[in-house]
Amino acid sequence: MRILIVDDNKTSLKLLVHLAGKIEGCEIVAFSTPDEALGALPDIDLDLAILDYQMPTYNGVELYTEIIRFEKYAQMPVVFVTADTDQATRMEALNAGAIDFLMKPVNPLEFNARVHNIVNLARARSELQKRAEWLRTEVEKTVKELREREEEIIHRLTLAAGYKDPDTAHHTLRVASYAEAIARELGLPDELCRDIRLAAPMHDIGKVAIPDTVLLKQGKLTEAEYRQMQCHALVGSDILGRSHSSLLQLAAEIAASHHERWDGQGYPNRVAGEDIPLAGRIVCIADNFDALTSERPYKSAWPFDRTVAHILARAGSQFDPACVAAFERALPKIRAIRDEDKALQEKELTLAEKYREAI
What we know:
Layout: E1 2-6, H1 10-21, E2 27-31, H2 34-40, E3 48-52, H3 60-67, E4 78-82, H4 87-96, E5 98-103, H5 108-161, H6 166-185, H7 190-199, H8 212-215, H9 223-230, H10 232-241, H11 246-257, H12 278-293, H13 304-313, H14 321-329, H15 331-358
Parallel strand pairs: 1-2, 1-3, 3-4, 4-5
Helix pairs in contact: 6-7, 6-12, 6-14, 6-15, 7-11, 10-11, 11-12, 12-13
């Protein structure tokens, strides 16, 4: 426990230091002028201040007001020592945050009793702050661990979704990156943008329930097969929505809504406009962009500019106009994401070829 004592009267200062020094566990930091005290701050740790009220340059209240400008001393209790019995003086001190008063000449027994009680109070407050900090740290640690487990679950589910088709794995990760870029251009909070990136790869998790004859068909789907494929949105929502995890709940929301349309002509629930969850509206654009710019067994990949024009033209019908505007602002980032993924796939293909040659 460190006690700051400031008194411009050397005799009074010596007495206060002597009396405070007799309190067990207390270390005294003493100054004879306010300027000296302020010059030493905030480099020293303090728990309690005992300040003379009548001093040159700064009176005790003015000195304390300057001291608590430093954040580390903002909650430090203060005792004023004064010979002034005027009520206005006491009110000024109380308004400044005084916890107690000592009258001059100081009575040693009274000083010991009052300051001892205040020291115990300060110690209890310090202990409470330490416990609160420990609790805060433990809560943050636990939340971080839970979050890491959620992210691990999502990563594993994403791998499972792409197990049958290697191209799906790249598709889901590209969609996630595109969605994050759009979300950031919408001005969404950083944490939500990150959550959308983490949750978006599971938008097609429901395809695990689709028969391979449909899912891996090398050609255009029949009307019946297309309706069967549409079921993946509700299946994905059902798989993910049973979790209590907020991240998996977001993933379920995206799975259920990323094929809805702004005009209400989408599936599976034919909701429209802002009734479609925002994350679903964002992923809808990201998913369509990637589907159009990717080669599929039944179609060639569209050029980048043609795909952009297609999406811009459908603002207000298929897509949320605000999300389309954010998509347009994000195009430099989206192009960079696509180029990076293309380079990665080429590298993977080269490594695979070298492996086959080696065996």
